Structure to design on (386 residues):
DNA sequence: AAAAATATGTCAGCATTATTGACGTATTTT
DNA sequence: AAAATACGTCAATAATGCTGACATATTTTT
């Protein structure tokens, strides 16, 4: 058995690494019923979309994770740490690192929850608000240009499409966020869920 | 000077960390002329979009980087290492690690370039083709559903929008890719820039 | 009132994916 | 023959995620 195996390796297969499949030379394509164009456009689009703020963030020694935290704290001032974790879908240990830096640099402040003093409500400072705006500006400009390029009436379609790309369970969170043109926010009580 | 500083810290400011900006309690919103809705929808959509293949990849001990390499090698069989680097916009050291794993696991094979034997043309094996399809399937399904949800005629608009979101310099590369439904490869001269 | 649960914070270690810098080897171009 | 190019590899570092363990304050349950 061992002999057979080594003969096979030594003579027929040479070594494990020479047992290779043949190269396939035809491109994969939509003929397989799969929308590769949109798939890779999504990759390229998102990469460039995030590159705008990345450059600004680098000046502050921040990364993409800081951006996300800053963004949602600005969108929902007063959200608690637990709520933020639920939106970002990361662990508290991952959040802690970036949140601490944002607090230490006075972009975000914490207030004890009024009903439950264990909670920490997160608010942007003026500095944090300004940075959030500065980060969003080039992204918004890119979107505006892209909408212009692809026809002005598309914004609603794009928004519907993107929302439909999100897992259904998570769409509820999106609707919590304020000033969505498609819906008004009567009272911002993030008291349950 | 030192005394003044410590008095200031000790009595007025207590320590550096207590000099905090006031919490801003109003949500940032579209009133600033910035399209926060689309910005965060893009984040949520992309996160869920990539989560589908991530689960499959985990079974192979692969990550997102492997997916990207496998995708583009399947889309453009025979591309060289340099071309792949140019598409992915990463360093060769970053590519090396994942490419090596894909070659060792017989998902990708290398052939010396026919004209220039220093080059390595990359091809998928049948195994690599199958995995690329398996990874793309749930993503394509998600897109199809989202397009259905947001109206059937939107596909062209979505494609235009996403393409317009990509940096202009990079759109040439996108047009190289095969079987784009909106354009035939015949009149596709990406020869300028 | 004591015990349990919850919200948050923190320490330590690890994985993935990216980076920069340096250097080696084969091949092609000058 | 020398220089440039394409690719591979080693080493160190950074950002962002993860798990596990444990501490502290506060609230809820018993």
């Amino acid at each position: 058995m061992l002999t057979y195996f080594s003969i096979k390796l030594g003579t027929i297969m040479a070594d494990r690494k020479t047992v290779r499949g043949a190269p396939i030379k035809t491109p994969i394509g939509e003929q397989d019923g799969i929308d590769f164009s949109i798939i890779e456009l999504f990759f390229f689009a998102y990469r460039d979309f995030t590159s705008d703020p990345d450059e600004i963030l680098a000046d502050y020694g921040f990364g993409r994770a800081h951006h996300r935290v800053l963004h949602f704290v600005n969108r929902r001032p007063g959200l608690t740490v637990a709520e933020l974790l639920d939106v970002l879908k990361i662990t508290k240990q991952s959040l802690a690192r970036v949140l601490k830096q944002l607090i230490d640099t006075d972009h975000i402040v914490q207030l004890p929850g009024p009903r439950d003093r264990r909670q920490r409500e997160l608010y942007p400072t003026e500095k944090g608000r300004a940075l959030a705006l500065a980060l969003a500006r080039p992204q918004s400009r890119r979107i505006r240009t892209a909408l212009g390029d692809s026809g002005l009436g598309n914004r609603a379609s794009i928004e519907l499409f993107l929302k439909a790309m999100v897992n259904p369970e998570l769409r509820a969170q999106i609707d919590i966020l304020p000033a969505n043109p498609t819906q008004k926010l009567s009272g911002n009580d993030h008291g349950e869920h």
